[in-house]
């Protein structure tokens, strides 16, 4: 399913057969090109989108949940996601775009973005319509309504609070959404940057450890390609984040460093000065997530200066 203008390029959407009609795992970005790919792909197997029984969404992000509402309109299908992400979808549907952009702008100011950056920021998440509110909510271990099959939800928070992987037990396959991808790692960010009591990277590493104990025949992710040896890939992702935590720590000292400056000092695919402001905002969310984990490990302390989020080494 194409994602126009996004370097990920596409989302993999899976259709699982059942006597009541197929159940989709994710639905793709809300765009006419994606809709054509979905309906055309189903038609290749003699399936009309009107026959879809349900859509189970691995997480609320628009490249996964965007078309779920349109599928429901065309077929009467149910939409299911984890209750934590369902809460976020309801929140997004209750807040208008201007409010969402204002929240992002305030977070950037608190992180230490410059006046010029703040003036040039037009908003990121506010440009995307929120996904459809689901009809059903899933918890860890719940079976999805897939007649004749056993598709079990596994709560794997981190990339989103309610991200789920889906274990097709009768075929020994696991659909990992964005939780485990074959060559890249998902974005793990903290939003707002100073929200208390939340540790998305810690949750991500914890749920990776749980998934990493599984030995399944095949892993079917939401991007790139299918692969085998889930435990080996999990180990690689954990090692990547531990290295990243070390890189964050190396930028800190006994003198407070602003969150925005920590993000600017990290290694990214493109130089910080060449990154669009929305990319910098998301990079700062990733830096904030790593700092929160370091705080919880007792290695870093928060030390705000003049209302700007700052951090020092502990001790």
From TrEMBL:
<dbReference type="InterPro" id="IPR036866">
    <property type="entry name" value="RibonucZ/Hydroxyglut_hydro"/>
</dbReference>
<dbReference type="Pfam" id="PF00753">
    <property type="entry name" value="Lactamase_B"/>
</dbReference>
<protein>
    <submittedName>
        <fullName>MBL fold metallo-hydrolase</fullName>
    </submittedName>
</protein>
<dbReference type="InterPro" id="IPR036388">
    <property type="entry name" value="WH-like_DNA-bd_sf"/>
</dbReference>
<dbReference type="InterPro" id="IPR001279">
    <property type="entry name" value="Metallo-B-lactamas"/>
</dbReference>
<feature type="domain" description="Metallo-beta-lactamase">
    <location>
        <begin position="10"/>
        <end position="223"/>
    </location>
</feature>
<dbReference type="InterPro" id="IPR050662">
    <property type="entry name" value="Sec-metab_biosynth-thioest"/>
</dbReference>
